[in-house]
Amino acid sequence: MTPRVQIGTRAVGPDEPCFIIAEAGSNHNRDRDLAKRLIDAAADAGADAVKFQAYSAETLYAKKTPPFAAWAHRTSQSPWEMMKAAELPRQWLAELAAYAATRGLTFLCTPFDHDAIDQLAALGIPAFKIASFELVDLELIRHAAGAGKPMILSTGMASNKEIEEAVGVCRAAGNEQVILLHCISLYPTPPHLANLRAIQTLASAFQVPVGFSDHTLGIELAAPARALGACVIEKHYTVSRTLEGPDHHFALEPDELQAMVRSVRAVEQALGTGLKAGPMPEEAEMYRWARRSLVAATRIAKGARITREMVTIKRPGYGVAPKDLDRIIGRQAAVDIEADEVMTWEMV
User: Fold this and answer.
1) Would you tell me which of 13, 143, 282, 327 could form a disulfide with 4, CB atoms 3.0–4.6 Å apart?
2) pLDDT per residue as tens digits for the range 129-146
3) Residue 235 maps to which CATH number?
């Protein structure tokens, strides 16, 4: 049985409500008011958590890293310059966490360096999220896992061996509270590459809660991911896709985030128990009126022996069941049965 992982007041696991993370990422554009507007949008949408990212260009990219194709059409900046322009000021962390709490949200932040881990641990963050790109930085994972908080590991681009190594580092640090997120490290991800069945593969292979970090455009894949067992849904969002920055263009806008949350919750309600045990109480009226029964095809006089030609099958469903047709044929009518009258056992 897959163990549950506790993130703050929320249990995360296959039999728990999906933990929905609104990924603000770097879409604050170094504007504190915009960061709070993002928190408001996440709360208004009904998300469980809001997540930012704590990185420093100095420890993230070598300055001489050339631009690469995925960003070249959007900016002339080098990766180092782009990250420098999008850094979240670390002094905002406590204020944003406190503001998120006033809106009923769990505050999360992805650390990209050891100092960020220490700062977030001191802040009392309830879980660490490790980005896909950092999954192979086992020293970073070891440091975060050592804080004793739940570990959410994104697995974009990773092989099973790399995932196994990352999970192993957490467990070697004495931390069994691991959640894996399936994702594809393309921004945006074309739907035909999303490979949602990997959610089930990861859950079976690692016996931990598994979620989906959705980088596709739109909201269409979150609900089916939940139906396939995703315990966590993470989705980038923004207040407007027209804003400048590396992550705005593929993120949801607030009304779309609300719609995604509604669709995930609807799927959760629709999944049910999986049992088929006959009509539910709510189906009782339809069971009575819309199923079929044996009905007299013609008038049948009292004492007449019933033949097949005398009986048809129609709605409603409160008479003799169609499966009992052979048991009715050959019996005598106990009363006069009018044409098109629903037949009951008392009539024969």
Assistant:
1) 13
2) 999 999 999 999 999 999
3) 3.20.20.70
